[in-house]
Specification:
The chain is mainly β. It contains one helix and 16 strands. It has one helix at 9-12, and strands at residues 34-36, 43-46, 49-54, 60-61, 70-71, 75-78, 84-92, 100-108, 111-119, 125-133, 139-143, 148-156, 159-165, 172-178, 189-195, 202-212.
Length: 223
Amino acid sequence: MNVGPRAGKWLANSDWPIVSGMEHSIPGLPFPLLPDGPAPETWHSAEGVITADAPARSDMFIDPAGRHPLSDAPRLLGAPEGDFQLTARVSVDFHSAFDAGVLIVYVDEKYWAKLCFEYTPQKKPSVVTVVTRAESDDANAFELSENTIWLRLSREGETFAFHASTDRTWWRLVRYFALTGSPADLPVRIGFEVQAPTGEGCRVRFDEIEFRPAALTDVRDGS
């Protein structure tokens, strides 16, 4: 969702090491991840776990109503080849509306899509998707009571699928799409994003990260 720091002690007194601008190598990922966008120091990785504090008032959204587009949410991206599946468990310390931890597919500032574990204005953790082709849409999938969920981003040819799971066994399809119109000469990058559009920041953890260099057998059968 659209709408960036609360100088709360939980954010200001982080004890994570600073790795500003550095490449991140995650076990199991056959490509490095590099910070993209603002605040490269947001990202920290160790022993296969990625952690981040989303900056206050940060977001990615090109409002279809024509209001000022936003693209100041930190991203951590890499460029895989061919078909793939990227899975991660996402945990968010929710505080304010639209705080989120995100899996993202990114071509450029006008063509991208994100699968969000996001806090609704009703204070409910929710799975939300946004697909942007020069302008963004915004679709809520379902709510849950926990602050942790598994998310999966997959590619087959020119199509992508977003899935979510509460047990990493049965996967619910929440979006199937193509980034039609995106520049063919730019690589598709994938990875992680964090945001806090209305608040002072939120802490996000990505773990159990897994990459498979193959398409899903069936995007709709729950596997």
